[in-house]
Amino acid sequence: MFDDEKQLLNSDGAVEKQLRPHHEQLGRATRFRRRTVTVLLSLAALVFVFVAPALLPRAPSTSDTDDLQSSAGGLIDLTRLFFNALSTDHLRTNLEYYTSGTHAAGANKTQATHTLEYFEKQGIDAEIVEYFPWLNRPLSQRVAVFNSTTHEVLFEALLREDAIPGDPASVDPNNLAPFHAYSADGNVTGQLVYANYGSNDDFNALEQAGISVNDAVVIVRYGKVHSSVKVHAAELAGARGVLIYSDPKDDGYTKGKDYPVGPWRPESSIRRDSVLLHRIHPGDPLTPGYPSTKNSQRIDPDNAVNLCRIPSLPLSYRDALPLLSAIQNHGVAASNISSSWVGGLTSKGIEYWTGPSTLEVNLENRVEYRTVAIQNVVGRIKGWEDPGQAVIIGNHRDAWSSGASDPSSGSAVLLELARVFSELGKLGWRPRRTIILGSWDAAEYGLIGSTEWVEENIDWLRASAVAYVNVGAAVGGNAFAVTASPVFQNLLYAVTKQVPYPHSNETVYDAWLRQSLATSLDADASAKSRPAISPFELNGDTIAFAMHAGISSVDMGFVGSAGAQHSNFDSFKRMVSFVDPDMQLHLAIAQVWGLLAIRLADDPVLDLCPMCYAKDIRHIIRQFEKQMRLRRSQPRWQTQ
Question: Please, are residues 110 and 439 in contact by the beta-carbon 8 Å criterion?
């Protein structure tokens, strides 16, 4: 196993495996101390990486961020002017455009051109930057249950999503067949085994329960860990293939009414995803560490360390029902492992068991790989005092379908920020530092566009980038959520206290704190006195900026109703019917995103908090030690 592969599984619970006691108590204590020291040193290095670029000295200035010198010689409240210039009508128009059709990676050049022309219309210098990564497209897929003795086919999955009357996105002729980006091409057959969410801990629990997945086809639920982790863990356990389905307990009818009556995932909805091992490294797998320009040297796919080697497919829960029925009363009852292994299909008569089934499952995944041109759009608003320093704001543009929430809500807001920054410019405002606007392509495949751009510009970014602020899915619900470097804590709190929360007397900060308290499991009293800022989850376009270039980064948005993610039902109709009918959530995230960018680009002295980083590290270590003590006190399969 590669060291990077070990690191991948460490993020999903393998740290516990490495620390598991094998000898006497003294040996356990010694290993724990060594591992804790390693964690401390690693975290200290991360502090330097994230904080150092943002603390570079800045040229002094006597101007004030909150005041704008008008041509008449008076002072204008910049924040108020910015808020007043934002328009829900423009946001709706932008969203309607971006959701007008399926726009997958490498197949949305028309939208790239529109974005470029929109930037240029606002007087923003902009360009399209092309890269040429290795991408796959679906050819044919099949999932069938059959009797290996009689060869009788007992069930064949539909592998399609229903048409929704009145929702054109559900019948777009360009909609993609269900598949996984970077899934292995193959045709495999085996007995079926259920592995809960497919985490490393889940596969360990199966092993402890005496259930082997060797040569099996594994079925797992979406959620908890990234799809790539599920497939890779199954591969390491000896499985032949993986089926990932959306369980209604996670984002379906157990949460509320499903689409088109409500926002939650309906029975035919299929969640496409990527299984690229981006935690090893994101970006084009054939140009690791350097940009995939047209003439770049490419490695052999067999040598790419971030590709899974077994086929996988996504399923609706309608297609998963007969498969789960086939393993009932075989193996171990899932509830005997943990109640958390039982999904929401019990109301459909399903009893969750591990299997293996006596029937066989055939998984066929035929995909075509080829080099495809993708288009990033990059705009620049030059700073007036320190143009060599840059604040970067970005959103990915490609989607698995029309992608109203993910990512088109963010794309709509990015265009509106470009327009409003231009309007402020007409009044005489320019940012102190340069603002760069990035519209990335191919993020759904594995953060390709942003990673390739970072790889091509990494020396300049390390020397000049102040911060990266990402909004991938701007509006997916009404709960504000942030993952960020802790140095941004004070600034994020200050900005969100200035932004009204829609349809209430609260600010976004107030709602964020209230929502954090309602969902927090943290017993630390200090953690309950402020909204939660999550440590980085290695899933978004922040990865290359933060982890490769060492740029302090933020990712944020409104989350909550994820019942259509990566399906044909993540549509404009669903958005305006159930999620954000009056575009007020779009307006709120535009205010937060834009004001944060203005503060980072304009403040003479950046309001960053290195001590917040130190406090968070201390808190994380305490939580880690507590988790390790808990895990040692229980058998592994009872810690699920």
Answer: no
Distance CA 515, CA 502 (A): 14
Residue with structure tokens 């860990």? 225
Tokens standing for 636?
């592994």
Question: Which value, to the nearest 10 degrees, does the dihedral of the CA atoms of residues 524, 552, 482, 108 take?
Answer: -160
CB 545 within 8 A of CB 553: yes
How do residues 535-574 score in pLDDT, each as one tens digit?
766 568 999 999 999 999 999 999 997 789 999 999 999 9
User: Rg of the chain over CA atoms, in angstroms?
Assistant: 25
| Rounded distance between C-alpha atoms, residue 202 and residue 192, angstroms | 15
- Beta bridge partners, 136, equal 369
**Tokens representing 314?**
């996504």
DSSP assignments along 476-503, one per residue: SSSEEEEEE-GGGHHHHHHHHTTSBPTT
Shortest CA distance to 487 belongs to which of 57, 54, 31? 54
Number of C-beta neighbours around residue 107 at 10 A: 18
pLDDT in tens, 462-495: 999 999 999 999 999 999 999 999 899 999 999 9
Q: Which amino acid, 620? A: I
Intra-chain end-to-end CA distance of the chain, in Å: 25
String of b and e for 610-628 (b: at least 16 CB within 10 Å)?
A: eebbeebbeeeeeeeeeeb
Q: Is the dihedral of CA 319, 324, 325, 327 positive or negative?
A: positive
Residues paired with 243 in a beta bridge: 219, 313
CB 407, CB 399: distance < 8 Å: yes
133 and 453 Cβ atoms separated by less than 8 Å: no
Q: Are 219 and 241 in contact (CB under 8 A)?
A: no
* Contact criterion met (CB below 8 Å) for 475 and 585: yes
Q: Evaluate whether 553 touches 466 at the Cβ level (below 8 Å).
A: no
Helix axes 584-602, 78-85, angle to 10 degrees: 150
Which of helix, strand or coil describes residue 518? helix
Phi/psi-derived region of residue 258, left when phi > 0, alpha when psi is between -120 and 50, beta in every other case: beta
- pLDDT tens readout for residues 388-411: 999 999 999 999 999 999 999 999
**Helix 227-236 and helix 200-208: axis angle, to 10°?**
40
pLDDT of residue 68: 53
Are 580 and 497 contacting, i.e. CB atoms less than 8 angstroms apart? no
Report which secondary-structure segment, H or E, holds 209: none
If 0-12 CB within 10 Å is exposed, 13-18 middle and 19+ buried, where does residue 458 land? Answer: buried
The residue behind tokens 């679906």 is 138
CA distance 321 to 350: 7
The CA-CA-CA angle for residues 226, 216, 566, to 5°, reads 30
What is the rounded CA–CA span in Å between residue 151 and residue 146?
6
Could you please report the per-residue DSSP string of 388-446?
A: EEEEEEEEE---SSS-IIIIIHHHHHHHHHHHHHHHHHHTT---SEEEEEEEES-HHHH
Residues 6+ positions from 429 with CB-CB distance below 8 Å: 68, 78
DSSP-derived secondary structure for 17-55: HHH---S-HHHHHHHHHHHHHHHHHHHHHHHHHHHHHHT
Handedness of CA 8, 10, 11, 13 (dihedral sign): positive
